[in-house]
Design goal:
mainly beta, 6-stranded antiparallel sheet, 4-stranded antiparallel sheet, about 5% helix
């Protein structure tokens, strides 16, 4: 079992908001304030598996460049259809209320969102088309013609669509109200969320409802691209 840096020598959560403490049966037994660090038992473990919740630690070279990224996770427990981290001594906290673990962002590998475009019937999808796409199979081989324009066949939420080649350019449009699964975000200030299993993206401006928790739970796309595992 591997463990990475602690805060002041102790395993520490920072919270997104005030949180209840639960017992192993899911009953509320106390509360915590987001203003203060929360100490917990257990250790982060290095993993190459597709864990539901995890953190990323970057390896930085002498020139302050990120050379690679490692994935770690803290064991979590499912109680009444929600996931919890252990605080120790039979106490648990909802994973969704944890912002950081030992100073590293608490990430989710999949979040379902519904896309929307007020007054319009379809929502634009954007595409990243680079050399890594072909290697990972996220962009299918070959080019097709769509209305006389070259396009690539890309997997979007399990379905194949035709998307124009380029860097973050407008490609296929999908119906407003469609639910897709996202697992990463681009850098701000105008976030785009990566559709899981693809190199296609949805603009944050086309997500129905509040995006606060989504942006806190998803890692940056560039960090995932540098994963060692």
């Amino acid at each position: 079992m591997d463990s990475i840096g602690k805060v002041n020598g102790r395993n520490t959560f920072r919270l997104l908001n005030n949180s209840y403490i639960y017992n192993a049966s899911g009953k509320k037994i106390g509360s915590l304030s987001y203003r203060y660090p929360v100490y917990f038992s257990g250790s982060l473990r290095k993993t190459s598996q597709d864990k539901r919740y995890y953190v990323l630690e970057s390896n930085i070279d002498s020139q302050a460049y990120t050379t690679s990224t490692e994935k770690y996770y803290l064991p979590y427990k499912k109680i009444k259809n929600s996931y919890y981290y252990s605080l120790g001594k039979g106490r648990y906290i909802n994973v969704r209320n944890v912002a950081t673990i030992n100073g590293l962002q608490n990430c989710s590998n999949s979040e379902k969102i519904t896309v929307t475009a007020p007054g319009r019937q379809t929502v634009p999808v954007y595409v990243v088309n680079d050399s890594s796409d072909a290697k990972t199979g996220k962009v299918l081989p070959g080019v097709v013609k769509v209305k006389g324009v070259n396009a690539h066949r890309v997997i979007v939420d399990g379905k194949t669509v035709n998307v124009g080649a380029g860097d973050m350019i407008l490609g296929q449009r999908i119906p407003s109200g469609t639910t897709v699964t996202v697992n990463a975000k681009t850098a701000g200030p105008q976030y785009k969320y990566q559709i899981k299993g693809t190199h296609t993206f949805i603009s944050a401006s086309n997500i129905k409802g509040s995006t606060t928790k989504i942006s806190n739970l998803l890692p940056y796309y560039v960090d995932l691209d540098k994963l060692n595992n």
